[in-house]
Design brief:
alpha+beta, Methyltransferase, Methionine Synthase (B12-binding Domains), Chain A, domain 1, Phosphatase 2c, domain 1, 2 domains, five-stranded antiparallel sheet, EC 3.1.3.3, PPM-type-like_dom_sf, PPM-type_phosphatase-like_dom, KaiA/RbsU_helical_domain_sf
């Protein structure tokens, strides 16, 4: 710092003397550049005052003692400001490093939780997933075999790195479930135990789990306190709620979940969503469910992906493109 301060003293003295003698604004421009460099080099406020005092002493004309005395007082005051300034620089650097780590963690989370959209042989599936921050608290997953297509959507009550870790654990639990867990209700009961045993007491998870049977065209689903979705009945041209009652994962050890069923005809579609969709802010409140249904219906003739994307765009416009919560919208449309 001594070398930097010495160089800054010479430059500052030159600019100050030049401006006092000539009044040319080019010296003010140079001082502006000088101040930016001083900040980047970490020169403290009290050092700036000291440099100014030293520069004043190089002026040929004698300065009144009162001026120098006032600078002594100012330097004393700036010592405290300088200490805060240095602390703020340290905090800023720590925050920048943390943001870099969170960004890396977000990329890792996306890689770990990625899933493949089912083929379009039986269902047309569209997903719009927009995290409110670098790391999402929503997790969706698909699994397809010869007989069925499984869809799940979970939402951690919480955000950030803890929520991301909880989602990774949930995916691991699903992939390593015992062979005797064969129903959607059984899977939720099993995952509830996993969450209750491994996640802190103040963190819970809501989850929707459904299975579409390719042979009989029946969609069987269950819910652990998750946001209620919709079923669009193409024949009657109406919506019905996908009502499902169940306790959130992790609240208590033993929980029995109920199963519900819907028979899907061609043109019918299922809407699965997180609370980031239903809590779209309009003025001082949230969007009404009927308004949301009407919005989805306005795009019902489009592909599943186009429905999801267009609904997101409209809802984002309503709240000035600011996400207050993680947004996940899944459309599952029967096409064959």
């Amino acid at each position: 710092m001594k070398f930097v301060t010495f160089r800054f003293e010479k430059d500052y003295s030159k600019f100050l003397n030049g401006y006092i003698k000539e009044g040319d604004e080019k010296y003010l421009y140079n001082i502006n550049k000088w101040s930016k460099e001083a900040i980047s080099q970490g020169v403290s406020p009290e050092e700036i005052v000291g440099i100014h005092r030293t520069a004043l002493l190089t002026i040929p004309e004698k300065l009144p003692d009162i001026v120098l005395s006032s600078l002594e007082v100012l330097m004393t005051v700036m010592v405290n400001y300088g200490a805060d300034y240095r602390r703020n620089l340290i905090i800023k650097k720590q925050q920048e490093e943390l943001q870099k780590e969170i960004l890396k963690a977000g990329k890792i989370q996306k890689s770990l939780l990625q899933t493949e959209i089912p083929s379009k042989e039986h269902l047309d599936v569209g997903v719009c997933d927009k995290p409110a921050n670098q790391m999402s608290g929503d997790y969706y997953h698909f699994f397809e075999n010869e007989t069925a297509i499984t869809v799940s959507l979970a939402d951690v009550i919480g955000k950030g790195i803890p929520a991301a870790l909880a989602m990774s654990m949930l995916k691991y639990g699903m992939q390593n479930a015992p062979d005797d867990v064969v129903s959607v209700s059984g899977m939720l009961s099993y995952l509830n135990k996993v969450v209750e045993e491994n996640i802190s007491d103040n963190m819970f998870i809501t989850m929707f789990l459904g299975v579409y049977d390719k042979s009989n065209k029946v969609f069987t689903y269950s819910s652990a306190g998750h946001e209620i979705g919709f079923w669009y009945n193409a024949l009657d041209n109406e919506y019905q709620d996908l009502y499902a009652k169940g306790l959130m994962l992790g609240i208590q050890e033993e929980v029995t979940y109920h199963e519900y069923q819907r028979s899907l005809s061609i043109g019918d579609f299922i809407v699965v969503l997180s609370d980031g969709v239903t809590e779209t802010r309009i003025g001082d409140g949230f969007i009404e469910r009927e308004t949301l249904k009407e919005l989805i219906y306005s795009f019902h003739e489009l592909s599943a992906q186009d429905i999801a994307d267009n609904v997101y765009k409209k809802l984002a416009e309503l709240q000035n493109f600011k996400l207050y919560d993680d947004f996940t919208l899944i459309i599952i449309k029967r096409i064959a």
